[in-house]
Each structure stands twice: as C-alpha cells, then as structure tokens.
Amino acid sequence: MLYEQSRYELAVPEFKQVLAQDPDHAMAHAFLSMCLTEREQFKEATEEAQAAIRLAPDMGLGYCAVAQAWFHRNYPKEAEDAIREAIRLEPDNPHYFAVLASIHLSNNQWQEALQSAEQGLQCDAEHITCTNLRAVAMVKLGRKSEAGLTIESALAKNPENSFTHANQGWTYLEKSDYARALEHFREALRLDPTNEWARQGIVEALKAKNPVYGIMLRYFLWMAKLSARTQWMIIIGFYFGRKALSAISEQNPSLRPILLPILILSAVFVIMTWIADPLFNTFLRFNRFGRLALSREQTIASNWIGGAILLALLCFAAVFGFRDGRFALAGIATGLMVLPLSGIFKCHEGWPRLTMISVSGFLALIGAAAIYFTFSEAKSSTDTAGAGLLGFFLLGIFLSTIGVNFLIRARPRL
Fold this sequence. Notes:
This protein is mainly α. It has a domain at 295-414. It has 21 helices and no strands. It has helices spanning 8-21, 26-38, 42-55, 60-72, 76-89, 94-106, 110-123, 128-140, 144-157, 162-174, 178-191, 196-208, 211-224, 228-251, 256-284, 288-293, 296-322, 326-336, 338-344, 351-375, 380-409. It starts with 7 loop residues before the first helix and ends in a 5-residue tail after the last helix.
C-alpha cells in the first residue's frame, strides 16, 4: 500500500522487516529494489533486484525491478533486455509495457514507445501510466489532437492523478496555450508537490509568455522530437547554409542589403539557442511566482549567466565613459563566456558537467589573460601576446560550442 502511494521512505523498512523474517522472499526483494531506485540508491536497488531474480527466476517482477534500476543508472540496453524478459514471463502485465515505453521515450524512439504503451493498454484499457505514455508518444509524433483526447479520457477516469495533469500541461504547451498549460501544471503540483515534470512545465510556460522565448520554446520542442542524427544534420546544414550565404554576400554586393539582415538574425538565433533558457530564467527571478518555481540549479545558472551579461554591459559602458576602445574587447570576451557557462548546466551531472566546468574555467583564464595583456602598458610584444591569446580564446569558444553537443548527449552511468 505504501509503495502504491509513492511513500517509499516508509515502505522500505516494511519490506526490510519482511526480509528479516524471510530472507528468501523474492517479491519483497523486488519491491524493496523498486523503492530504493525511487530513492536513488541504485547500487543497493540493483543488488536487491538480482537477489529476487536468483530466488525466483520465473517471476517477472524481479526482472522489472532490475530493469528500472538499470534504466535509472543509464544502462538502456540492459534495462530493455531485462524488461523484455519480464514481459516474456508475464505478458499480461501492463506495468511492464509501461517501463518498456519509458525506455523507448528516453531513446527518442517515439513509434516504439507508442506501440509498447498500446500493448499495455490491451492488457488493461484503464492503465493510467500506459495512457499517459501513449499520449506523450503521440505528441512527439505530431498527433496532438489524439494525445489531447487520450489525456482528457484519463483525467475523466482519474482527475486526481498528478502525472496526467502534468501531461496535459505539456500538451497545451506544445499548442502554445500557456494559460491552460499553467492551470494543469499548478493542479499537478497541488496533487504532488514533488512532481518535477510539472515544475519544469511551469517554468517553461511562464517564460513562454515572452514572445521571444515563445519562439525559442517552439524550436526546442520541435528539435526534441527529432532523433540525434537528424538534429546533427540540421545543425550542420544550418552552419554550412550560413557560410554559403556569407560567401554569396561577399561576392555579390548588390545582394548584401538583403542577405546581411538574414545573417545577423541567424547569428542571433544561434546565440539564443544557447543562452535563452538561463537568460529568461534570470528574468523569471523578478516574477514572484516564477522565482519560487525555479530549481536550485536553474537559480545558480541564472546567477552566472546574469553576472556575465551584466559585466559585459559594464565593459561596453566603460568604452564611452573612459573613451577607451580596449574595454570593448573585455566586453566581447566576457559576453562570449556566456556560451560555455550555459553549456555547463545543459550537461548531466558527473564527468560531462565536470568536463564542461574545466573547459569553461580554462577559457575564462585565457580570456582574462588576453584582457590583461591588452590593458598592459608593456611593449609591442605584449600586444602581440594579447592578440594571440584572444585568437586562441575565440577558437576555444567556437570549439566548445561544438564539443558541448556531445557532452549534452552523454549519460554517465551510475
């Protein structure tokens, strides 16, 4: 009962008490594993699930438990193999199909996720989790109307389900109906204050009220539906397309008035894809409700990004105040640091984030050295050193924007 109510901290001692009386109780090992997974005690969860499989190799629940542990530890292949074994042993259990659908969703396999969720619904037509996962897959496949009907049906059956309300909120977010999205996100958090998906939805809906971020959000949601390969093809195509337009502009001065605004807007768009999220989180700090919705990590990110932008603006102001163009260099270097800084918080915790922190720190040192030598009163050799460091800094910024795309997709195994 405690497990079904998601009160895992209270369920754990109950299962342990059962195991104290009967160490070979396979079902207790499996349920204890799933509770420990929810509490992010992944090593212990894996051990308990493996004990359940060892004691009852023909029980699907043990394989389901180990699948959930592997999934949260970022071992998708092992998780999929385990849950498929659970399905083979107990093909009428809708929960197993829900786990398989979740694994497919995490791998951007939208059609496979839809099929798994629908298989679960064939076992139990009113299974809430399968219903919600089916709706998520439909949204990703562009079938928003069907997804909306699916969620409305789920809400009619169980209006007190926090996950369903959050799901409906994201569906409205996809339709750019931010007011109705906020209603469902707030209701989801009222029912379950720990619903992280609903909290993220509230943050996105509040930021999307700004028309600039609204455009960026539509782009982010669209890109999220694509496979990693397709995303890379779009990014590479955009880069070479922009290079081609730049070459055409240089070779054809008559076209420059038309192409120059396109090149400027495309450059702004690229920069916004990097900084829009933390930048508008900074603006959200001035919203009474938005300030409370931001997570600790989002607040830290907004502090760093906001600080870098403020310092860059002060440097540009100093150009006019001191009539010294060297401050413009400091402003450009400080402003460009926003790119690697924003990349830090896009990476998963662990070695990807630590790598990006190291890269950002190194670039900050190079940028600071370039500024120091530029302002130094030493001889011309100093100016040469400053120019060389600046070139190295700019190259590092460019390479970091490419490399971070690999780091963002990396999932450190726990």
